[in-house]
Amino acid sequence: MVRTHIRGEALLRGMTLTEVAKKLGLYLSNLSAMDSGTRPVSLRQLSKIAQFLHCGVGDLILGSEEERPLFHEKALDRAVDKIEALSEDGTDKSWVPKVTLAWNRHYVKAKKKR
């Protein structure tokens, strides 16, 4: 089962999980279990929740863009964060080719493991 980000998306919109459950006619315990990944959630349910929260289903599965890691390997993600922190206004893009190569290597290696 997949952990969702229902609570996080609700909080971004100034709502609690209790309010979301009440408005959608769901039990709070079920919605909380869906959020933690201990209860399966269908795409139909996710679509209904996403529509109510005015977000995409992908946001509920992956979380907001700020939360999403760029890479599965935390070291690569930290390296990108460090480089971006050094660039005051984000205009220095000299690091992009290196990151793109690292990203390609990472996902090629991940595909081979499957």
Account of the 3D structure:
By secondary structure, this protein is mainly α. It has seven helices and no strands. The longest helix has 18 residues, at 96-113. The model has no long low-confidence stretch (mean pLDDT 79).
Layout of strands and helices, then pairs:
Layout lengths: L5 H7 L4 H8 L3 H9 L6 H11 L3 H6 L11 H13 L9 H18 L1
Short summary:
The chain has 114 residues and is mostly helical.
The residue ranges in which pLDDT falls below 50 over 5 or more consecutive positions are none
State the separation between the terminal residues, measured CA to CA.
Answer: 19 Å
- The coarse silhouette is elongated
Largest sheet: none
Helix count equals 7
Mean pLDDT, all residues = 79
> From N to C, what is the helix and strand string?
HHHHHHH
Which percent band covers the strand fraction? Answer: under 5%
Highlighted features:
114 residues, mainly alpha, 7 helices, 0% strand
